[in-house]
Structure formats: structure tokens, C-alpha cells
Amino acid sequence: MKLKLPKESIFLGPPPLLRRVLAFLVDLLVIDLVIISPFRGILQKIVPKGGSDAYNFLISNPGYGRTLSLIMLIIGILSVLYFALLEYKFSQSIGKMLFGLFVKSELKQKRLWQYAVRSMFLLMIFPFILLLILDPVFMFFTKTNQRLSEILSKTRTVQSYLMGNNI
Fold it and tell me: Is the model's pTM score more than 0.90?
């Protein structure tokens, strides 16, 4: 005997903040292991250990400061590409995959620029570095918990929810 029960419906909605934070921390770990690690040896040779020693060294050796800035820019661009390419192609980064989160475009057809814009906060240069503070704060002032970069890129981070039937 076959029962004719209504199908369960799935809808997309904003994920819990903790889930987003944990997914981002996993992505930062991946970026550290894959992108930053190859530069670690060069950075250790350029910048001496110690806060004031490092500052004084970079002030007195501007060539090293430019090299350090270039390395940081390369790391930032590779980090933006990590998020942009994975989220454009699969709608998920590795961290989002582990926590069941997706990136959804609000446009009819998704565009690569959207996924690059939503990750610009990873560029450690002015004015993008301001997004490190502004971006997450915006989440607390929007109904959908969207970051500023998500609003600008017309994307949102979502999670699938299963609506059960109450019979």
C-alpha cells in the first residue's frame, strides 16, 4: 500500500552566526596551510622577531617594507581567489562545505565579480582593510544577517532547512 503523503519541502534561510564563524575559521586554516605557508620562510627572513625591532628594521630598510607589502598583497589576492573561485564554481568554500552553508546570488545569473567583491576584505590594503571591521558589524543590523560585502555583491550565505509535515 502506497501512502500519498505531502512531500517535505526544503527552503534556504540565513544560517546561525556560530555556524558561519566556524566555517570561516576552517577557511582561514586552509588559507594558512595552502597560501600563507609557502611565504612563511621568506617573511621570517625579512622581518626580525620582536615588535619594536621589526618596526625599526622596516623603517630603516624601506626596500624590505616594499617587499613585505608585495607579499601581503599576493597573499590577499590568492585568498580572494580561494573564496571567489570556490564559491562561484561550487557555491561553497571548504569551510562552508563542512558546515552545510551555501552562497547564493540574488541575480538571475551569477557572475564571478560578485564572489570576488564579497571577499575583498581579505586584501590588507586601504580601503579594503576597513571592511575587516565594517563587514561583520553589518550582520547585526540586517534582518537576513548579511555582511556589507554580501549586500554590495548581491549574494547571501544560506543554509538548507527541511520543513517537516505535521500530520
Answer: no
